[in-house]
Structures are given as C-alpha cells and as structure tokens.
Amino acid sequence: MKVLIVDDEPSIVNLIRMNLKLEGYDTVCAYNGREAIEAYAAQKPDIVLLDIMLPDMDGYDVLRAIQELDRSAAVIFITANDKRTSKILGLELGADDYITKPFDNKELALRVKTLWRRIRLARGAAQEAPPPEPEAPAQEAVPAPRVYGILSLDEEGRRASVEGRDVPLTYREFDLLCYLARNRRRVLGREELLENIWGYSFMGNTRAVDILIKRLRQKLGPAGEYIKTVYGVGYRFEVSEK
C-alpha cells in the first residue's frame, strides 16, 4: 500500500513517513500543492494524507484537482485548524476523514489502516487473491445488481446507477449506501453508522454522518429521496411508492 504525504513541514512529513514505514506502508512525499498533484498523477497512491495549509494553494483546491484525476481518491485531511467549519468543509468536498494537529501517531496509523482495509474490501483484494482452482465450475453465478426503484446497486462491481446513469461514489459513500439499502426500512442511528462505516470511534462527531448523507443525496439525484431523515434518531432507507 502506498501513501502520499502532503505537508510543508519536513519534520511532520518525516514523522508520518517513519510511522507508516513501521506499519509496512510505502510512502511518497510532497511539500506543496503542485507537487502533490503531480505526485498523485505519477505515483497513483492508495491513500493521501493532505495538509490544508500549504504554501502555494490550500488543501481544498488540491483535493479538487486530485478528484479530477480520480473521483474515488481516498483522502485524509491533516489540519492545524480545529474549527468545526474547516472539518465540515473538508468532508463536504469529499475527504474520507480528517485528523487535527498535533495528532497521536497511533491514531493516525489506525485511521490509515481502517481506510486501507475498506479500500481492499472494495477492490476485492484482487491483486492478492489466489488464482481460481481448475475444477471450479465455469458457470459460477455472479450476483445480479440489486434494484431499489430507480436505483441499481452492484455490490460486487461496486457500481451504483440511477435510471441507468452511473453515479461515481467514494469508498465510504458506496459503503454507506449499501449499508442503508441492506437495512432498508430500519431506522439506523448515527452512532451505528459511524461504527459500521468508519470502523472506529469518530471522536463522537456524528456530524460526519450527516455530511456523508448530504453528499450521497446530491449525487443520487432523484433517488436521494430514498434516504429518509428520522429527526433526533438517524436515517432510514425506503423506496417511495408512487
């Protein structure tokens, strides 16, 4: 697994690099926004650790540029600004996570590990999977996409479409949509969604769930109305009967 570390402070870059090396991860380093974009295009890292305050451009603009190269890019923001608005903006733009400086090295490694585990599950660990056994039946059935009204979900291929139009989703957006659909008609609390989609305690910030739901609804267009808000509790997936 390869991680792109983007920060204008060499001491922080080296600290992160050493800690990730201990976890067995390869790293690529960049010290400004332009280097980060070029490194992403050339190296195709699996995860980006992105500082918001960079000397030539802010991390939000870097994220947008990276998303133009890869809509499913996995990004964790690193920020010295602990204002809630800064964190919310990063999540709204499509970041998967954020961590505030000064950070705990173990916490950062845990967040990277958790996101990487979800990415590997999303990819089906195809590169590491053993070749199929010769005696395996050639006609092994492939699960058909599940259809919910105008929404189609292909969990095997990790593809979502609305009225036949593909909807590009990030790893967490797709995982959240599938979890909602699998548990349709059941009210899901924010804490349950945090535990099952983020995979760890997200510092009690249930606002992250609301932001991800908002992004999903926007991307799904008319199918976004299937995600119902249950005020004071959480969310429920339910296909409207018309």
What descriptive keywords fit this protein?
4-stranded antiparallel β-sheet; alpha/beta; 19% strand; 242 residues; 8 helices
Q: How would you describe the overall organization of this protein?
A:
It contains 8 helices and 12 strands. It is α/β, with parallel strands linked by helices. The protein has helices spanning 10-22, 33-43, 59-69, 84-92, 105-123, 171-182, 190-198, 207-220, and strands at 2-6, 26-30, 47-51, 75-79, 97-100, 146-148, 151-154, 159-162, 165-166, 188-189, 227-230, 234-237. Residues 125-139 have low confidence and may be disordered. The protein has a 5-stranded parallel β-sheet, with helices on both faces. The chain has a 4-stranded antiparallel β-sheet with strand order 6-7-8-9, covered by helices on one side. Strands 10-12-11 form a 3-stranded antiparallel β-sheet.
